[in-house]
Amino acid sequence: MYCLGRDLTGISSILSEFAISDYDESHIGRRSEPFMTKVDQSAVEKVAYASGCAVPWHTSAEQLSNGNVVQPIAAIPFYWYLVNNTPTYRAYETTYVMGDVMKQNDAHLHTGDDYRYYEPITVGDTITVVCELSKVYEKQGRQGRMKFIEDIWEFRNQRNVLVGDLVRKAVTIYAEGTSPQPKPDFGPDLAEKTRCEVKTLPRRAWDHPDSVVDLFDGKEHAYRQELGPITWTSMIQWMGAVDDYAKTHYDWDYARERGFPGGVPITAGPQMGAAMLAPLVAWAGRNGWIEEFRHIQRRQVNPGDVLTTYGFSKPTEDPDRVVVEAWLVDDQNRIRNTGVFTVRRWTDAPVGPASRLWTARSK
Prior knowledge:
There is one protein chain. The protein has 363 residues and is an alpha+beta fold. The chain has one domain (14-355): Roll (Thiol Ester Dehydrase, Chain A), CATH 3.10.129. It has helices at 14-20, 41-51, 78-84, 87-97, 190-193, 232-242, 252-257, 269-284; strands at 35-38, 62-63, 69-70, 107-117, 126-140, 144-156, 162-175, 198-201, 221-229, 288-297, 306-315, 321-330, 335-345. Strands 1-5-6-7-4-10-13-12-11-9-8 form an eleven-stranded mixed beta sheet. Strands 2-3 form a two-stranded antiparallel ribbon. The radius of gyration is 20 Å and the shape is globular.
């Protein structure tokens, strides 16, 4: 782990160099030095609870009927623990995101992520993380020039197997003026999307085994979960679990100086992605492997905002896969996040480390 406060003298960060260059396209294609992290039980458990994905197979060892004991599988939000603890990202967060590189009213914000989870990351694995700068493009926004960037983070285990990757998406807004907030988009009525019954999930759905449905029965299914207000406690729990220390999420002075709406910090984009992911983890159950999750942050989320997430699944041509469309809305039904999941049937889960060679993924 590359701890916060560790000396960054001489540390090379392709992300920092890319940002300071005003995202010069000549940087595209550069790859960071690989960084290795051993996965420990405490880190996996903290992320599982902070993200709401605290089902048994993401939090604790389990004994199988044959007497073998299997270690917990890291939940998808664990990717952020891996990313944040690389020297590449730590230097970028410290010198750019939290530093004084940007001008007074400029802002660097998360816009969404694409997660792909190919094979389990388990306690005891050694994960090698590499970042590649993949895309940059510019648009003119209401308040000024906007630079959109994407970078890809690859995660390989000690057997050099690509277990997952993350496409991180962000934007830097170069403030040139002020403009009114855009009109919000409103969430759809589930009744317009599907005729199936909507299952209401409790907030701690991981504690309720009856939350599980059979997503692979060839029918459509729908769920809804009221998250309530976003609290400072949940924000701090998230930041501590994934080691995210960007001032945008906790520093009131920084928020006022940078002209954030209302002068308050904003909730981390990946935390909002996790809020959409968590009910699906409990809803799909241990035989539903979430192999892909793409989400877009439509509007910022502030502490105190009252949120609800919901979605519906529909079968695909592959009987072992379903697609889930999901929304995160506030108490006025204004969309904050949208997402799409691909869930795969995973039989005989969980299984021991020696037998995690479940059916090879499609190419």
